[in-house]
Amino acid sequence: MFDLNGKTALVTGASGGIGAAIARALHAAGATVALSGTRKEALEALAGELNGRTHILPCNLSQKDETEKLVPAAEAAMGGLDILVNNAGITRDMLFMRLKDEDWDAVINVNLTSAFRLSRAALRGMMKKRFGRIIQITSVVGVTGNPGQGNYAAAKAGMIGMSKSLAGEVASRGVTVNCVAPGFIESPMTDALTDAQKEAILRMVPTGRLGTGADVAAACVYLASAEAAYVTGQTLHVNGGMAMI
Amino acid sequence: MSDVAERVKKIVVEHLGVEADKVVDKANFIDDLGADSLDTVELVMAFEEEFGVEIPDDAAETILTVGDAVKFLEKAKAA
């Protein structure tokens, strides 16, 4: 089950915790993985750990021209692209009344617009091959909303609507488009929380623990697999039951 | 038949899975050959690749029949 041998994948934001976990899991399932991100050292460290079947493609997704070169570079490096995981994301949290245009624009640009551009670029090869897997890493807050994250929640909700629309267009060509929506996941961001804050969060999570990058990555491996061919336009929530939607 | 027309016809037959004798100049991709809107996008992509030309969106919109495609590509090739 879920054998990705011979498949090629591009993971954005692979220098971050969840992105690295996704790259590890796809790689462990047999895929060749192109690691993209802004921090080259972190990508190199990950590539060293995976030891083979990786390519390092640094990219700043806030730059249009860099973004547009990323998929062609991945295709050139790996001889094609079967699986695209749009994982890269940034936050600029602020109460709505104080939210500045530039913080709105930055979050929409990196989290949503880059996912649009990369997906569009990947489609050509996928449609031709009659096989493709596009996976957007969205967030539970894209569905529930979250005070202080108006920009982030808008971008993540945008990914869901975008994916459903695209899924309908390309389903007949063997290309699926799905979202994975993590809840609270262990990361440098949650490490910075106080014990009291963590306790408050855990009261909302029936599973009683924070999620891990591996929890999110497992959902990606499934959606990337041949077995998930009949699943498209969906959002798979990986949140320990904190929101049942 | 010109070389361009033959190559266009081959692509259309392969891509849409239609009988070669139905792929005549007047055949409309959607109405006569059963293409959907995504097929037309893919056909344009295939023409671009085969002939090494770029077909901008506004030009692609005017390519409705096999003959339209041949005419456009003959012109593009001559240019």
UniProtKB/TrEMBL annotation, chain B:
Record key words, sorted: Cytoplasm, Fatty acid biosynthesis, Fatty acid metabolism, Lipid biosynthesis, Lipid metabolism, Phosphopantetheine, Phosphoprotein
GO BP annotations listed: Kdo2-lipid A biosynthetic process; lipid A biosynthetic process
O-(pantetheine 4'-phosphoryl)serine, modified sites: S37
Localization annotation: Cytoplasm
UniProt keyword Transferase, yes or no: no
Pfam families: PP-binding
GO terms under cellular component: cytosol; membrane
A GO MF term: acyl carrier activity
Membrane-crossing segments per the record: none
Pathway: Lipid metabolism; fatty acid biosynthesis; Glycolipid biosynthesis; KDO(2)-lipid A biosynthesis
Domain Carrier: 2-77
Modification after translation, per record: 4'-phosphopantetheine is transferred from CoA to a specific serine of apo-ACP by AcpS. This modification is essential for activity because fatty acids are bound in thioester linkage to the sulfhydryl of the prosthetic group. 4'-phosphopantetheine is transferred from CoA to a specific serine of apo-ACP by acpS.
Main location: cytoplasm
Role: Carrier of the growing fatty acid chain in fatty acid biosynthesis.
Family: Belongs to the acyl carrier protein (ACP) family.
Protein known as: Acyl carrier protein
